[in-house]
């Protein structure tokens, strides 16, 4: 089995904090060639969730690391010329990677160090780093910590962490959150996962004589039952990593000045990671960032795989030809804070309206509601834990993607 033992590399590029020698990271590689791509998956998901992207980038879903020599793919000589070599891995706390018990051993910075250690293990000096949701948060940290090793950065369905992880406060999302916390069986978990991962329009489409929801439901139940359950330690730890994630202005400036391009890819109907926050992150990364707004949900990488894969190919190609940020970005030029306020005041005066604080007050009210909703969720979770038996209730992992952030 291919494992990377975190912290055992003789010369880690990140020396400000030691890595945990007890953690091992399970990974798979696919394809081959001079172009290296590291895929970082999100909360509660395994590396297999990158299936559509692995297939699109390399043309195969057969791992180079397969134990069966009869199906192992060998890349050498002319076969790798111009090809893409992909590595996808299970984050700590899920799949076949180690599960740290303490929440303090989970943060996007710590998990970024896992990813950097894996680059060392593979001998990859530079790579395109693509992340989804929590994996995109981790990818941001990788880019800020070792910018000289990043060729490009793709952030799929990302937010800035913390309160931005909360979905919109409406009846549907509150119901989904409640069902998610109560889910104890593969059937219950599969049903709620579909509503969190995909747009309703996509689920209600017919594939032959059956709705896609029914087909995916059976696949999810089978996958959760087959692959086993994620431990409570792993889920709580990864959730803590999302909640404590934050990109400082210094880190943003490091990414902007590093010389690589960024693509922020998002499903506009994502009820988990709201697209508003993804756009805000893209604007913070102007002028090196491009915003790709697609019709889909949180798992837009599965719902719109061709469009997502094309966006990734565009990013790789633009990086290879050293496209300038001015030609790459599709975001408007960012104005200074004073200019933005001045234009807003002039616009309101010309329209004959008084400048008010209503917008600011509404935003603060929304944040307060999110905060109290978070407290209610935490209180419910702790109450459930008190009533839990000695054998912990497990959280399922789907064959494709199980992620609530």
Automatic annotation (TrEMBL):
<dbReference type="GO" id="GO:0016787">
    <property type="term" value="F:hydrolase activity"/>
</dbReference>
<dbReference type="InterPro" id="IPR000073">
    <property type="entry name" value="AB_hydrolase_1"/>
</dbReference>
<protein>
    <recommendedName>
        <fullName>AB hydrolase-1 domain-containing protein</fullName>
    </recommendedName>
</protein>
<dbReference type="InterPro" id="IPR050471">
    <property type="entry name" value="AB_hydrolase"/>
</dbReference>
<dbReference type="Pfam" id="PF00561">
    <property type="entry name" value="Abhydrolase_1"/>
</dbReference>
<dbReference type="InterPro" id="IPR029058">
    <property type="entry name" value="AB_hydrolase_fold"/>
</dbReference>
<feature type="domain" description="AB hydrolase-1">
    <location>
        <begin position="83"/>
        <end position="305"/>
    </location>
</feature>
<dbReference type="InterPro" id="IPR000639">
    <property type="entry name" value="Epox_hydrolase-like"/>
</dbReference>
């Amino acid at each position: 089995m291919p494992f990377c033992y975190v912290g055992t590399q003789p010369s880690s590029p990140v020396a400000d904090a030691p890595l945990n020698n007890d953690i091992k990271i399970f990974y798979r590689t696919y394809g081959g060639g001079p172009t290296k791509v590291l895929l970082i998956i999100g909360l509660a998901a395994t590396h297999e969730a990158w299936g559509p992207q692995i297939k699109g980038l390399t043309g195969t879903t057969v791992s180079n690391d397969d134990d069966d020599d009869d199906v192992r793919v060998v890349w050498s000589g002319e076969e790798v010329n111009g090809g893409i070599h992909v590595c996808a891995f299970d984050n700590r706390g899920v799949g076949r990677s180690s599960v740290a018990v303490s929440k303090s051993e989970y943060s996007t910075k710590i998990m970024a160090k896992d990813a950097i250690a894996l680059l060392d293990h593979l001998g990859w000096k530079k790579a395109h780093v693509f992340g989804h949701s929590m994996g995109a948060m981790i990818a941001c940290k990788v880019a800020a910590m070792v910018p000289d090793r990043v060729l490009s950065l793709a952030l799929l369905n990302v937010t800035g962490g913390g309160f931005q992880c909360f979905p919109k406060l409406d009846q549907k999302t509150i119901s989904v959150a409640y069902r998610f916390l109560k889910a104890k069986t593969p059937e219950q978990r599969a049903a709620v996962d579909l509503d969190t991962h995909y747009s309703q329009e996509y689920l209600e489409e017919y594939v032959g004589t059956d709705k896609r929801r029914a087909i995916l439901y059976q696949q999810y139940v089978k996958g959760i039952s087959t692959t086993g359950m994620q431990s409570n330690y792993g889920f709580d730890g990864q959730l803590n990593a999302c909640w404590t994630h934050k990109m400082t202005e210094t880190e943003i400036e490091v990414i902007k000045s590093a010389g690589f391009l960024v693509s922020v890819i998002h499903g506009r109907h994502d009820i988990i990671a709201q697209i508003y926050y993804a756009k805000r992150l893209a604007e913070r990364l102007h002028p090196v960032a491009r915003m790709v707004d697609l019709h889909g949900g949180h798992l837009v990488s599965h719902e719109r795989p061709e469009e997502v894969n094309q966006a990734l190919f565009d990013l790789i190609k633009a990086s290879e030809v050293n496209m300038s940020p001015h030609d790459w970005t599709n975001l408007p030029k960012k104005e200074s804070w004073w200019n933005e306020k001045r234009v807003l005041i002039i616009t309101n005066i010309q329209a004959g309206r008084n400048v008010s604080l209503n917008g600011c007050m509404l935003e603060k009210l929304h944040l307060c509601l999110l905060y109290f909703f978070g407290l209610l969720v935490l209180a419910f979770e702790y109450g459930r834990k008190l009533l839990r038996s000695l054998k912990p209730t497990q959280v399922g992992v789907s064959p494709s993607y199980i992620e609530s952030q």
